[in-house]
Design goal:
The two termini are about 30 Å apart. Helix 2 runs parallel beside helix 5, helix 2 packs across helix 10 and helix 3 packs across helix 9. By secondary structure, the protein is mainly alpha-helical. The protein has one domain. The protein is built from 18 helices and no strands.
């Protein structure tokens, strides 16, 4: 790869990460406010029901392209029309098979569980969303290979805004769980129309055996990891829901929401770096620096956010009338926050393994996590309810330190050194904000004081020990602003 190509990739990747991260802040602001309003208007059981059905339908997504989309993104050569249409044909056949299976299985499940129209309409809406997502795959691949995450993030904002605006409006008018179904259909349909308007492609149903074989060589190993992940996450969540019940699962859904908000920054970097790492995999030193820089900025933003959310969440619940129904979610939130901090470092590393072709290594890691999940999740959930589920999450997540060791061995990435200062600064936030509780201040004053003190501590520490990294980030923001204005 030529030097000018590397410089072009560096510039485009950096701007894409910054832009997509800033866009994700907007998306998360919308989704957080929307989720808060929905949990204020709906009960724990209704939130739990939607979470359970969402997990069920998400399983279908793992069978929608058997890794072909990732194969198209990862490959070095330009994708051909034959490869796109072959992927599309295979994907739509798999989607059709998945929907037929749902149509056969659901009536039996509905009868045994005494499900009614609420469950059925949520299922219908999510299946519709599943179909729309499959139709969006090729346009999304085109934009990702171009590293054009501005348009992708714009579509995300449109979809998320529509979902929560529609859901909150219908929930306010007492539509209950049906609010989820209506908003899901609206979001999916509009998103499909917009992405085809922005990124059209020569849609067709031709099939090339040679193209299929080429894509399967990468896609099948990649999808094996996805299937293992499905067994680890989706199936285990459904098992937990069956053990602890709809209301308790709703509490866990609320507890996970807060820690997931900062992870959107990681998602932004992951979305950009996967195709980027794939293109620079031969440049070992450049790849190492890129991975370490990604991990640093992920931890720099996510760690303090997780610390702050954990410290102010109890005060927010207590200050809002009729919101006390979510107070049992606080203890699980702490465990999920710790697990999110570990995942924020681990997930980019497994992403890097995949991008440089270390699929077998990732598969072994996924098998390890899956075995641990199916050992600890059912046992602790059965013994201790939703608290046990949260503890099991952290136990399984802690095994990810194996990945950190492998990153040092395989990619020469120094994980501990990279995240040291964000970790110390975030711990300083936690201990300082805990001391505020001893003052027994008014709840509103407590929240304001914690936010100001936590931000001040983190900014001062980071300015002293991470000034170089902060200056670099500010330069990228300036470049982004200049690029937009030019």
């Amino acid at each position: 790869m030529e030097d000018f190509d590397i410089e072009a990739i560096k510039t485009k990747t950096t701007i894409s990460v910054v832009f997509l991260s800033l866009r994700n802040i907007g998306i998360q602001a919308i989704s957080t406010i929307g989720f808060f309003l929905l949990t204020l208007l709906l009960g724990t059981g209704e939130v739990g029901l939607f979470a359970i059905v969402s997990e069920s339908v998400s399983i279908l997504g793992y069978f929608s392209d058997i890794g072909l989309a990732s194969a198209l993104i990862q490959q070095k050569d330009p994708i051909t029309r034959s490869e796109m249409q072959t992927t599309f044909v295979i994907q739509q056949l798999l989607v059709l098979i998945a929907l037929i299976i749902v149509a056969i299985i659901y009536p039996k499940i509905a009868q045994s569980k005494s499900y009614g129209p609420q469950e059925m309409w949520i299922l219908i809406s999510l299946c519709f969303s599943f179909v729309c997502a499959s139709l969006k795959t090729i346009p999304s691949i085109q934009l990702e290979r171009q590293l054009n995450f501005r348009l992708l993030s714009t579509i995300d904002i449109i979809e998320n805004t529509l979902f929560y605006v529609v859901a909150v409006i219908f929930a306010f008018f007492k539509f209950g769980v049906y609010s989820y179904a209506i908003s899901t259909i609206v979001r999916s349909l509009v998103g499909l129309i917009v992405i085809y308007k922005i990124s059209p492609w020569p849609i067709g149903f031709s099939f090339s055996l040679d193209s299929a074989k080429k894509l399967f060589r990468y896609g099948i190993p990649f999808q094996i990891n996805s299937l293992i992940a499905m067994a680890k996450d989706r199936f285990s969540n459904l098992l937990v829901a069956g053990i602890i019940g709809r209301d308790s699962f709703g509490i866990l859904a609320w507890a996970q929401k807060g820690p997931r908000v900062p992870l959107s920054f990681m998602d932004a970097i992951m979305r950009v770096t996967f195709p980027t790492f794939a293109r620079i995999q031969e440049q070992k030193e450049f790849l190492k620096r890129s991975i370490e820089k990604s991990i640093y900025y992920i931890s720099f933003f996510i760690f303090p956010a997780l610390a702050g959310i954990s410290m102010v969440a109890p005060d927010i619940i207590n200050i809002i009338p009729k919101y006390g129904k979510w107070l049992p979610a606080i203890i699980p939130l702490y465990f999920y926050a710790l697990n999110a901090a570990i995942a924020a470092v681990t997930t980019p590393l497994t992403n890097a393994f995949n991008a440089v072709g270390k699929i077998t290594l990732t598969t072994k890691l996924m098998i390890m996590w899956t075995v641990l999940t199916w050992i600890f999740y059912p046992f602790l959930s059965y013994r201790y309810g939703y608290i046990g589920t949260a503890v099991a999450t952290l136990i399984v997540g802690s095994s990810s330190f194996v990945v950190w060791y492998l990153a040092r061995k395989v990619l020469d990435v120094e994980v501990i050194k990279t995240i040291l200062h964000p970790t110390i600064a975030s711990l300083a936030i936690v201990f300082s904000l805990l001391s505020i509780n001893l003052l027994h201040l008014n709840l509103l004053i407590t929240i304001i004081t914690k936010i100001i003190l936590g931000a001040a501590i983190y900014i001062i520490y980071s300015y002293i020990f991470s000034k170089k990294e902060i200056d670099w980030f500010l330069v990228q923001i300036k470049c982004l602003v200049n690029k937009k204005s030019s």
